[in-house]
Amino acid sequence: MPADVPTPIAGPIHPLLRSTEEYPFVRLAKRRAALAPAGLPVIDFGMGDPRGETPEFIRRTLTAALPAVSSYPASVGKRELREACARWLGRRFGIQVDPERHVLPANGTKEAVFLMALAASDVAGGRDTVVIPTPAYPVYDSGARYAGCTPHGVPLRSEDGWRFEPSRVPDAVWRRAALLWINSPHNPTGAVTPSELGARIVSTARRHGFWVVSDEAYSDLWFEGGPPPTLLEHGLDNVVALFTLSKRSAMTGYRSGFMVGDERLIDALRRFRPNVGVATPDFIQDAAIAAWDDDAHTADQRRSYAEKRTRFQQLFAQRGWQTEASEATFYLWMRAPGGDDAAFVDRLLALGIVATPGSYLGAGGEGFVRWALVPTLEQCRAAIARIEEAGL
Q1: CA-CA to 74 of 20 to 30 Å: which in 67, 103, 122, 338?
Q2: For residue 165, what is the domain's CATH number?
Q3: Residue that is last in its domain, among 295, 328, 360
Q4: DSSP state of 143
Q5: What's the confidence (pLDDT) of residue 304?
Q6: Half-sphere exposure of 334 (CA within 13 A, CB side)
């Protein structure tokens, strides 16, 4: 390089992107590449991505709505979609909301999760803490950090039924809290927050002046315990709930969900969203309207997961593998034989079977394994046969 040309200095990169820490499912994919036998079809119970077909009527609605010319969708979504979301809330929970003031569509709830702390915190004003019961969906933590907030993890405990207890958080933390993440039914444990506990959580939020964001992505996937309640049943003040079609309708790739709750936060999010994106395309929204307006296909989804769940519960019982919580969602939360969750998952990988070590999902998950019952029934049968043949 000529002497008069300065040596290039690299431009800045966000500190979190300079970290060597990897997203949990990237780490798991690397373990899979290293350990799964070549030539053996991998059966993946790791990520919660349903492998069953999206119902045909939803796909038919989408294709019928494809336009010759596609324009930018409005950032607040179509009025018809907001109304369909409100109708579903009324049928599912008996809750009446105003689709104009209380409902805002999202590009799947992952977008809403990541952006929430940016809109619902005030770092300069001292509301800089995000309280996260762990183990948890990893984006609660990363969304807080990218927003400049401090995550405050609260490890969940087996003796509490894997449910969050607000009294375990000191008042000093609540005074700095911008928001609390509640996830019920809970990923990864499948625990459900009962109404009495939900009332105490909401009361704590109103007393200390923070937001409760209730991620209820699995609210339509229940089994023996019946339909889980929503935090919204305790009123909308200080509460926003997130719902998605990804799980109830096998529509993960459609990226369609919505936020609903306190109109003060919904209004702030409505003003925030044009800066970061728009709603999903109109033809996706038309498919979403059809999905929210139909409950029969969700009952079919539950029946499918129930059959797979029963088969794995029988397998675990035969092998002496203990599950905890697992009341709802399509997850089974299993104690790792021998106590080392990562080592047990490595043994599964050697059979071409992927599951998620609980330790990958945060403090409190050590010694447990999450099974996402998303493969097809045929794949589930094949996985069970491999485990039995190997004598694992």
Answers
A1: 122
A2: 3.40.640.10
A3: 295
A4: H
A5: 95
A6: 29
Q: What is the pLDDT of residues 246-272, one digit of tens each?
A: 999 999 999 999 999 999 999 999 999
26: left (phi over 0), alpha (psi -120 to 50) or beta: alpha
- With tokens 């979190």, the residue in question is 16
Residues spanned by the domain of 209:
68-295
DSSP symbol at 148: T
Give the end of a domain, one of 277, 295, 313.
295
Distance of CA 219 to the CA centre of its chain: 11
- Distant-in-sequence, close-in-space partners of 285: CB < 8 Å, separation ≥ 6: 73, 77, 78, 80, 81, 105, 256, 279
* Cα 366–chain centre separation: 19
Give the chain's domain count: 2
Measure the CA–CA gap between 331 and 309, rounded to whole angstroms: 8
Pick the closest to residue 219 from 188, 255, 187, 184 (CA basis): 184
Note whether residue 314 is domain-resident. Answer: yes
Q: For residue 35, tell me if it sits in a domain.
A: yes
| Class of residue 39 by CB neighbours under 10 A (exposed 0-12, middle 13-18, buried 19+) | exposed
Helix (H, G, I), strand (E, B) or coil at 244: strand
Answer whether residue 60 shows pLDDT above 80.
Answer: yes
User: Are residues 220 and 303 both part of a single domain?
Assistant: no
Q: Are 49 and 89 part of one and the same domain?
A: no
Give CA 133 to chain center in angstroms. Answer: 13
Contacts of 111 (CB under 8 A, 6+ apart): 255, 277
The two structure tokens encoding residue 245: 């079609």
Residue 199 has which token pair? 């009332």
